[in-house]
Amino acid sequence: MSTIDSDHLATTAYYDPIHQIDAVKLLPGEYYVTQKDILLVTVLGSCVAACIWDSLLRIGGMNHFMLPGDENSGSSARYGDFAMSLLIEQLLKLGARKENLKAKVFGGGNVLPGFAVTSIGERNAEFTLDYLQHKGIPIVAHDLTDVFPRKIYFFPKTGRALVKKLHVKNNTIFERERSHLAEIKQGFALTRSVMS
């Protein structure tokens, strides 16, 4: 059996009592691929998650990334260009066939009130749709942009996905988004100083 790149592999496993199944929670910059009958779960604000699976061989996975990325992003799964290629590569290593792959994509919300700059969520959503089209992987469902955070439940063996739009009254998601935004700004500042 092929090995799995564990650098960005999600490791938070638990039992989901609602769906009565073992589950893995993905955080930003993580992915998970499997042949097992489990549930993959993540919460998204401006981030995007791609759920990709081989519908015939029943192998699937999910990623969770923060920014589209570019040639200076390096090998961080927080960036879409690396996160998408890593997810597809790991699915193929597990035995999935490229011609069988299908995708469902979620997230890209503009969840910070009053955020007037070009929406990071919109850029993430556009990147993901373009990337999958370029790779020839059909997108069979998507729930992108809008102003709501989302909780995603993905069953990788079947490709079934559930989306719960979160109408939050607490600040947890907003604080998480502000934290992501601060990381992004810090990353841009570091890139500029290195390139100067």
Explain the overall architecture.
The chain has 196 residues and is of the alpha+beta class. Helices cover 28% and strands 30% of the residues. The protein is built from three helices and ten strands, in the order ββββββαβαβββα. Strands 1-2-4-9-10 form a five-stranded mixed sheet, with no helix packed on it. A five-stranded mixed sheet has the order 3-6-5-7-8, covered by helices on one side. Helix 2 links the parallel strand 7 and strand 8. The longest helix is centred in the last third of the chain and has 24 residues. It is globular and about 40 Å long. The C terminus is likely disordered.
Throw out a few tags for this protein.
alpha+beta, five-stranded mixed sheet, 30% strand
What topology emerges from the helices and strands here?
Layout: E1 12-16, E2 21-25, E3 30-34, E4 39-44, E5 48-54, E6 59-64, H1 80-93, E7 101-107, H2 120-135, E8 139-144, E9 150-155, E10 160-165, H3 172-195
H and E order: EEEEEEHEHEEEH
Q: What's the count of strands?
A: 10
Shape: globular
- Model regions low in confidence, pLDDT < 50 over at least 5 residues: 188-196
What's the overall average pLDDT, rounded? 84
